Amino acid sequence: MQRIVVLTGAGVSAESGLSTFRGGGGLWDDHRVEDVATPEAFARDPALVHRFYNERRRKAGAARPNAAHHALAELAARDDIHLTLVTQNVDGLHEAAGARDVIHMHGALADALCAACGHRWPAPKVMAAEDPCPDCAMRATRPDIVWFGEIPYHMERIAEALERADIFASIGTSGRVYPAAGFVDHAAARGVTCHGFNLDADEIGPVFDHHHVGPATQTVPAWVATLTS
């Protein structure tokens, strides 16, 4: 059985109409990252942060999975392949396409988190910092999102999957944000065959064995077809 680890980033969901983000002064839905995606931003202006994520949740709820999401879900469903699907995305489109047991290393818009006790629960469409935690009743509700400066989720599980992988693929991510940017180096050091997918050839580093340049809705289904033929 082939063991495949796939990492997906914002480029996978871009063709479903969801915004991408790039660092270095870039904007994310017209907001600076420092204003909406750091613990300091939440402490400074929780109402602004909640408005931002409420709008992202609304947009994600209206989006539909595209051909890349569906191709990966079909790959995950095969009995002859063990797929570990890791995503930096928080939109839930992999699950909407039918994928199960997706590893959300940056959290999910569909979940809420109590900043006081750590309890998690399904997020309503509209959240506010004043919403009481259903477990401890503290008014410390925040999105269950890994912000810049926080530690991504499930890192041990991801490392274990990379140790066992035969193939690693990075799809629609710039490869600039660590620790995810280091996954390919870890895999390559073990002799794992590495595939890079991006719209821009310059975003696919030389460590990748195979470069797939073009829209994910075209390159990902074509790659999956070669694996399953």
From TrEMBL:
InterPro entries, A to Z: DHS-like_NAD/FAD-binding_dom, NAD-dep_sirtuin_deacylases, Sirtuin, Sirtuin_cat_small_dom_sf, Sirtuin_class_III, Ssirtuin_cat_dom
Catalytic residues, chain numbering: 106
Cofactor note text: Binds 1 zinc ion per subunit.
Catalytic reaction equation(s): N(6)-succinyl-L-lysyl-[protein] + NAD(+) + H2O = 2''-O-succinyl-ADP-D-ribose + nicotinamide + L-lysyl-[protein]; N(6)-acetyl-L-lysyl-[protein] + NAD(+) + H2O = 2''-O-acetyl-ADP-D-ribose + nicotinamide + L-lysyl-[protein]
Residues that hold NAD(+) according to the record: 9-28, 88-91, 172-174, 198-200, 216
Sorted UniProt keywords: Cytoplasm, Metal-binding, NAD, Transferase, Zinc
Top EC class for this record: transferase
GO molecular function, one term: protein-malonyllysine demalonylase activity
PROSITE patterns: SIRTUIN
Cofactor list: Zn(2+)
Subcellular location: Cytoplasm
Function text: NAD-dependent lysine deacetylase and desuccinylase that specifically removes acetyl and succinyl groups on target proteins. Modulates the activities of several proteins which are inactive in their acylated form.
Domains (record comment): 2 residues (Tyr-53 and Arg-56) present in a large hydrophobic pocket are probably involved in substrate specificity. They are important for desuccinylation activity, but dispensable for deacetylation activity.
Identification of the protein by name: NAD-dependent protein deacylase
